[in-house]
Design a protein that fits this description.
heterodimer; A: about 220 residues; about 80% helix; B: about 200 residues; alpha/beta; Rossmann fold; three-stranded antiparallel beta sheet; about 25% strand; nucleotide-binding (chain B); ATP hydrolysis activity (chain B); Heme ABC exporter ATP-binding protein CcmA (chain B); AAA+_ATPase (chain B)
């Protein structure tokens, strides 16, 4: 399984499609936001964490449809399904998701504090937004895996994945933004939404791979 | 060890393409599945591999249930696609499959030498010719041990020398007690073969 993880990360980085596309998209969305909203620093710092979260959500949906499609195109998927007796397919999917997250989404989390500065978010808010992204974005990848598994046989499934997955990611977005706001806006709590966010990630880390494995087993 | 199929029927897209296929293979035996295009050779192999559900009938593997509890887990499947990543080197690809499928076979370098590709382990898979890609996929069969080989047009794209080298590898596998089911148009190049002729049903 470690071999699978390392290979997937290597592929994600080496093919040049994963990490950089997501980061550039993230950068583009956050960078144009102040131009659209206007130079009101108070407003920017208030909506900053939400903008970071929305952009990260959309950026991490990019490239999700390739999660299993590339494996199906070169025949790898057949062998992964057949190896079920040795490596449970749901666990294989889990490891693939983790690798996808490491190569494609972790860089987003890493640049989030920098981009938060563009939005005039104060240091505590930056830390909170980064922490919530770190805890919450894996859930998006696990949910996305289900969508990716469902459309694996379709040649242009990218948009369909986003449409399928987006409604399910709304709770993650709500609690992610609530926690990052809670860290700076005084009466709002930070810990409760943050813990629910962690719970969502744990919940989807089980449900997502299991559902995706079920879909992959019935591809054709 | 015995691989048996009883009354298998296969469907593609809701249409029955073959039915009533039965065979029994003891250790050391090979089955050549022949027939015109569209007769369902690939479908049959995929059903044996557990990648497609059988419409009727079942496939069983008996003899060593402790080590190989299921049919799919005991099979190597060499389909039309080579299951290699273009962005990785040949050796990285094989090393991954060896680690993932279980390191019970040859080392990648040895497996590459066995298929006559000794010197190219460091090249990205994308740089190889079609025949070399096929031979790399054949080398995958050697890096981890599986008693049953399911081969779909294994010699497609191979030159004469590589094809005869591959039949030597298949003979070795059979001599070691393996089982081979191969869908092919060409003779496999050895004697211990039963033939299953699949016709187009109208």
């Amino acid at each position: 399984m470690l071999a699978l993880y390392l290979r997937e990360v290597k592929l994600g980085l080496r093919a040049g499609t994963g990490a950089l596309t997501g980061v550039l998209f993230f950068l583009a969305v956050v960078a144009v936001m102040p131009f659209g909203v206007g130079p009101d620093l108070n407003l920017l710092s208030r909506i900053g964490p939400a903008v970071l979260w929305i952009s990260a959500l959309l950026a991490s949906l990019l490239g999700l449809e390739r999660l299993f499609q590339a494996d199906r195109e070169d025949g790898t998927l057949d062998l992964l399904v057949m190896a079920d007796a040795r490596h449970m397919l749901a666990f294989t999917v889990f490891v693939k998701c983790l690798a996808h997250w490491t190569a494609g989404v972790l860089p987003l989390v890493a640049v989030a504090p920098l981009l938060g500065l563009f939005m005039n978010v104060e240091p505590a808010g930056l830390a909170a937004a980064t922490l919530t992204l770190l805890a919450g974005t894996p859930a998006i990848t696990f949910i996305g895996a289900v969508g990716a598994a469902l459309v694996v046989a379709l040649p242009r499934g990218g948009l369909l994945v986003s449409v399928l997955v987006l409604p399910l990611t709304i709770p993650v977005l709500i609690f992610g933004v609530a926690a990052s706001r809670g860290a700076v806006a005084e009466p709002d709590p930070f810990l409760q939404p943050f813990l629910i966010l962690c719970a969502l990630t744990l919940f989807f880390s089980v449900i997502g791979p299991a559902a995706a494995a079920l879909a992959l087993r019935h591809v054709d | 060890m015995r691989l048996a199929a009883e009354g298998l029927s296969g469907e593609r897209g809701g249409e029955r393409i073959f039915s009533g296929i039965s065979f029994e293979l003891e250790s050391g035996r090979a089955l050549a599945v022949t027939g015109p295009n569209g007769a369902g050779k690939t479908t049959l192999l995929r059903i044996i591999a557990g990648l497609l559900p059988a419409a009727e009938g079942r496939v069983t593997l008996s003899g060593d249930e402790e080590r190989w509890p299921g049919v799919a887990g005991a099979c190597h499947y060499l389909g039309h696609l080579n299951a290699m990543k273009a962005a990785l080197t040949v050796e990285e690809n094989l090393a991954f499959w060896r680690a993932f499928l279980g390191a019970t076979g040859l080392f990648p370098q040895e497996a590459l030498e066995a298929v006559g590709l000794g010197g190219i382990g460091h090249l990205p898979f994308a740089y190889l010719s079609a025949g070399q890609r096929r031979r790399t996929a054949i080398a995958r069969l050697l890096v981890s041990h599986r008693p049953v080989w399911l081969l779909d047009e294994p010699t497609a794209g191979l030159d004469q020398a590589s094809a005869s080298r591959f039949s030597a590898l298949m003979r070795e596998h059979l001599a070691a007690g393996g089982i081979i089911v191969a869908a092919t148009h060409l003779p496999l190049g050895f004697e211990t073969v039963e033939e299953l002729r699949m016709g187009k049903r109208q």
